[in-house]
């Protein structure tokens, strides 16, 4: 009888250990980005233009500065930044020193009045302002930049939060790297991108393990996009959150019982 009990306890111990190891590990296949789906997949070039022209919308803020040879004229055309670059040393100052696009899609600029900028790129807005100012000025430079380019990373990322982007565009991998990558428990097969549109919010799901993502229109993010990495199913049973004390206590008890039987 003791022999049978010993065999049953041994069997119970090893089965429990195997189950513990199986539920506490995440397969590598679920963690690797841009996987090659088959041996016939030999594509190395993906058509996806990096230059994504964002179209300005109502509610956006633009930093606009006109630089001329005459200091008084420069001050007149830049009332928000009077005093020089020291007034734009931080994000809050840049926001306060920017021009807001109203609900009708216009911004009000000194000397030339209201300018329609909705659905125009930053480069197009720069050209329009420059053209209107040529009536009054001869030699000058116009600088236009989009102020409110923020993205938010939530869920299974190592450093969730809102990040400010100081460049014209950013792709999903660059964004994730800003948050120190996804965690081991992130579902890379189904990452949500929440994007604001004219009709409300749009939610799309991308597969970061598939190389076809490089061809997707959602490979590059837009201002105010929210990226949400949801956890894999059964995360609560994974090794990181497993009750170590209970398991080690059970193993210790099993070992003691086996020793006693022997």
Structure characterization notes:
With 262 residues, this protein is an alpha+beta fold. 27% of the residues lie in helices and 24% in strands. The chain has a 5-stranded mixed sheet, covered by helices on one side. It has a 3-stranded antiparallel sheet with strand order 2-1-5. The chain is elongated, with a radius of gyration of 29 Å.
List keywords for this structure.
262 residues; alpha+beta; Outer membrane lipoprotein wza fold like; wza like fold; 3 domains; five-stranded mixed sheet; three-stranded antiparallel sheet; 6 helices; 12 strands; 27% helix
TL;DR of this structure?
The chain has 262 residues and is of the alpha+beta class.
Sheet-strand content, in percent, reads: 15-25%
Name the helix and strand elements from N-terminus to C-terminus, one letter apiece.
Answer: HEHHEEEHEEEEHEEEEH
Q: Provide the gyration radius in Å.
A: 29 Å
Summed up, the helix count is: 6
